[in-house]
Amino acid sequence: MDAGLLPMEEAPDAAAPLLASTVNISLSPRARDAIEDFCLDQNPPAKPETVIEWIVEDWLEREGYFH
User: Fold this and answer.
1) Which of 5, 16, 34, 62 can pair with 20 through a Cys bridge, CB separation 3.0 to 4.6 Å?
2) CA 29, CA 35: separation in Å to the nearest integer?
3) Is residue 1 over pLDDT 50?
4) Distance between CA 38 and CA 30 in Å, rounded?
5) What are phi and psi of 38, to 5 degrees?
6) Distances (CA, A) of 32 to 46, 48, 51, 58
7) Which pTM was predicted?
8) What's the whole-number mean pLDDT along residues 42-55?
9) Calculated CA dihedral for residues 54, 57, 59, 64, nearest 10 degrees
10) Phi/psi class of residue 64: alpha, beta or left (left: φ > 0; alpha: ψ in -120 to 50)?
11) Which residues touch 29 (CB under 8 Å, ≥6 apart)?
12) Cβ neighbours of residue 54 closer than 8 Å, sequence gap 6 or more
């Protein structure tokens, strides 16, 4: 089974606001630990939600979604 993202129209909660639909993102222990370490290394420490937002925005920008 493909663990990729579903298109928004096929997502179970497509009508839900994006924030509500991403609140329960599950991460591997490795990713969770890396994000936690990154948060603690910031001055002042960053919130995990903010770091995940930075990661997603960076990835989307590199993939060309921000023109």
Assistant:
1) 16
2) 10
3) no
4) 12
5) -60, -45
6) 14, 9, 11, 18
7) 0.57
8) 88
9) -160
10) left
11) none
12) none
Structure tokens at 59: 């990835």
Classify the C-alpha dihedral 23-26-31-33 as positive or negative.
positive
- The Cα–Cα gap between 4 and 42 comes to 30
H-run or E-run covering 21:
helix 18-22
Strand ranges for the chain from DSSP E: none
CB-CB contact of 59 with 51 (8 Å): no
pLDDT bucket at 23, cuts 50 / 70 / 90: low
What number of residues does the chain have?
Answer: 67
